[in-house]
Specification:
By secondary structure, this protein is α+β, with helices and mostly antiparallel strands. It has two domains: 166 residues, no CATH class; 208 residues, Nucleotidyltransferase, domain 5, CATH 3.30.420. Helices cover 36% and strands 25% of the residues. The chain contains ten helices and 16 strands. The strands form three sheets. The protein has a seven-stranded antiparallel β-sheet.
Length: 404
């Protein structure tokens, strides 16, 4: 059995020449003019959109994207207004790429332009973690969907939606449940549970990510206080975000590699769907916890596990750090690193052990994507497919407030 997974490839366009920069700017501005005119006309059909966008000097890939996208804005997304920084959307026929290892940037994209013989090639700086998917796109093992091109202060970013098939993970016989706890001081703690016995725990320190986020907040705050140029703030923000993304990618890869060393692995994560609403540790701590991308890190673990054919399941997050994995009773945590119970005195791997234990003691008979409650809310478990679906949506400009 196989399943279709949808992901978004990301790339930054290499710095274009002055002429190519002008053509890219003209393409984006013309697209936004057509988008706003069609949206303001409140048209709801593809043919009505076609009548409005036809006169615009746009490539057919952009016009076809508008005809598909605009009717959905009001009918599906209930949009009342458009974002000023809307990305340029193109249908999959604009997904013309090439690769050569003789170039400085191996991958290049053919940028569509209106008219015949006007397209031009531009190098791409891809995310190294996604290199295999870019090759799959070239050799036909992945199918391109919508493309989105966005202009930032100092760069152009290209997002390409792709679909590909992977072997569907099934319920293994005699599974090894591996619980991963995502946190701030320890980025990931993991512990496998085999025959009720914890095995070979792993830990990824969160000190580097915590230092970067603190430094980012301080730097951006100082730049704003000095009325620094917008491009300078954007540059610093992008620098820190790229560094944090690198940490997330490496940590998620470590987690999946850890799981692969066990027979019949099943990764178990906490369901953090409502973490922002439920956290209440005071203003200062709430700000710090809310700012860390728990779901982002979990999502990358899930993505990589799906590609590796490892099943991923979720359990209720309530009291995992306060419940003893051995006796299933609430213990005491007077300090962050301590857990007081007759069975253990350290909290380092307590949560990951409890996550594994909670899944093992709560068998699930639900279909994928459904939630079921077995016994009580503490044993709630759900399955996910691992697919990351990115429906069309407006790119919202970042607020010029310090990122925390």
């Amino acid at each position: 059995m196989s399943e279709t997974v949808t992901k978004t490839l990301q790339a930054t366009l290499a710095t274009p020449t002055a002429g190519k920069e002008q053509r890219l700017q003209r393409l984006l501005h013309t697209y936004r003019d057509a988008l706003n005119d069609a949206f303001d006309a409140e048209v709801t059909t593809m043919s009505a959109v076609n009548d409005i966008v036809t006169p615009y000097d746009l490539p057919y890939q952009a016009k076809d994207a508008l005809k598909s996208y605009i009717p959905k804005l009001r009918a599906t997304y209930n949009a009342d207004e458009l974002d000023d920084e809307h990305p340029l959307r193109l249908v999959n026929r604009a997904a013309t790429f090439d690769y050569s290892d003789e170039r400085e940037h191996g991958f290049v994209w053919q940028v569509p332009q209106p008219g015949r013989g006007t397209n031009f090639w531009i190098p791409l700086r891809i995310n190294p973690e996604q290199e295999s998917l870019w090759f799959n796109l070239l050799n036909g093992n992945a199918e391109a969907g919508e493309l989105r091109l966005q202009r930032h202060r100092t760069s152009w970013e290209l997002h390409v939606t792709v679909e590909y098939t992977v072997e569907e993970s099934t319920d293994p016989d005699n599974p090894t449940y591996i619980g991963f706890d995502v946190g701030e001081s320890a980025l990931i703690t993991g512990c496998a549970l085999k025959r009720d016995v914890p095995r070979k725990p792993m830990l990824v320190s969160g000190s580097r990510a915590r230092h970067l986020r603190k430094e980012m907040h301080t730097t951006l705050k100082r730049l704003q206080e000095r009325d620094a140029a917008e491009w300078r703030i954007d540059e610093r923000f992008d620098h820190y975000q790229n560094a944090l993304t690198d940490i997330v990618e490496k940590a998620s890869r470590q987690a999946v590699e850890y799981a692969q060393q066990f027979d019949n692995p099943v990764i178990v994560l906490e369901d953090l769907s409502y973490i922002r609403e439920s956290l209440d540790y005071g203003k200062w701590m709430n700000r710090r916890l809310h700012s860390w991308a728990f779901a982002r890190l979990q999502g990358r673990i899930e993505d990589k596990a799906t590609e590796a054919g490892i099943r991923v399941e979720y359990v209720n997050a309530a009291y995992t750090s306060q419940t003893c994995h051995a006796c299933n009773r609430l213990g005491h945590r007077d300090e962050q690193a301590e857990f007081a119970c007759v069975h253990t005195t350290t909290a380092t791997f307590q949560s990951s052990k409890q996550i594994s234990t909670r899944r093992q003691t709560s068998p699930v008979a639900s279909t994928r994507g459904e939630r079921v409650s077995v016994g009580n809310s503490d044993t709630m478990t759900r399955h996910r497919t691992g697919a990351v679906v990115t429906p069309p949506q407006s790119t919202v400009s970042r607020a010029r407030n310090p990122r925390r």
